[in-house]
Amino acid sequence: MIEEIHIDVLVDDIPSVEDLLPLHGLSIYIVTRDDKGVFKRILFDTGPDSKILFKNAETLGVQLKPDLIFGSMPHWHHIGALDKFREAVHVIPSPPLAHASKRGLTPLPGVEGAYVLHGDTHWNEQGLALMTRKGWVVFLGCSVHGLRRTFGSSLLRLGRIWGLIGGLNISTRDNVNLSFLRKLKGKGLQLVMPLHSVSMDARKIILDGINMIDFGYEVSGCGVQSDFSFYK
C-alpha cells in the first residue's frame, strides 16, 4: 500500500508557474513510498519532446531518474521522448485500435500498491492506480474518448477514489463528464487535478466546484509540485 506520493508535472498544455515551457502533451514524475519504506520513481508519460521535458525538469530542480516509464497510450504527445530512457522499465499499452481484451486492474510489476487500470474502449488507453488507505489515486493520460466513456466503468469498479490526476478530456460544455466527476465526488473523490486535454475554463470549473484539496496552485498545469500523505 502507498503511504506517500510526490508529483512533479513536467509537461502539460498549460503552465502553472512562470519560466516553464508548456507543450501539448503530458508528463508527470511520481515518487511513491510504500508502507515498507520502499521508494519508487515512475515517469507517467514523457510528453512529445525530450528537450522540453528535461528543460522543465531542470527548472523545477527535478533529477529525472525513473525506475519505470508508464505510457498511458502509444501516441507521440504521450511517449514521444520514450527513447531517452532506455535503461528504465517501460510499461506501455498495445498500439491504438487493437482489440482491448483486458478490463479492470492488473498489478504493476515491481511497485507495491500500484496497478494498471485498463480502459473501456478499443484505443487501449491505460491509467495508473495507486492504492492508499484513503482510497485510490488514479493518474490518466488523455481519456481520448472522454473520461466517462474511456474509463467510467473501470473507475466505478474500483470503489472509493480519493484522487484523480491527469488528462480528463473535458470542456466547459461537457455536462456528461462534469456530471461524472460530481458522481465520483459523491462517492468520496477529494482531489481532482485536471491536466492535458482539459481546457483552461474547464479546469477552473473543476478546481472551484469539484476539487476539495488545496495542492498549492491556482491553476493545475505544468510546474505543479505537490506531496500527499496517506497515513492512518
Give the strand order of the largest sheet, numbering strands 1, 2, ... along the chain: 5-4-3-2-1-12
Number of E-state strands: 12
What portion of the residues fall into strands of 2 or more residues?
25-35%
Mean pLDDT level? 92
Unreliable runs, pLDDT <50, ≥5 residues?
none
Helix content: 10-25%
Number of H- or I-type helical stretches? 5
The Cα radius of gyration reads 16 Å
State the end-to-end CA separation: 12 Å
Order of helix and strand elements from N to C terminus: EEEHEHEEEEEHEHEHE
* SS class: alpha/beta
Q: In this structure, how is the largest beta sheet organized?
A: 6 strands, mixed
Shape: globular
Question: Keywords for this structure?
Answer:
232 residues, six-stranded mixed β-sheet, 5 helices, 12 strands, globular
General description of the model:
The protein is an alpha/beta fold and 232 residues long. Helices cover 21% and strands 29% of the residues. The chain has five helices and twelve strands. The strands form two sheets. A six-stranded mixed sheet has the order 5-4-3-2-1-12. Helix 2 (76-79) links the parallel strand 4 and strand 5 (89-91). Helix 3 (147-158) runs parallel beside helix 4. The longest helix is centred in the middle third of the chain and has 12 residues, at 147-158. It is globular and about 40 Å long.
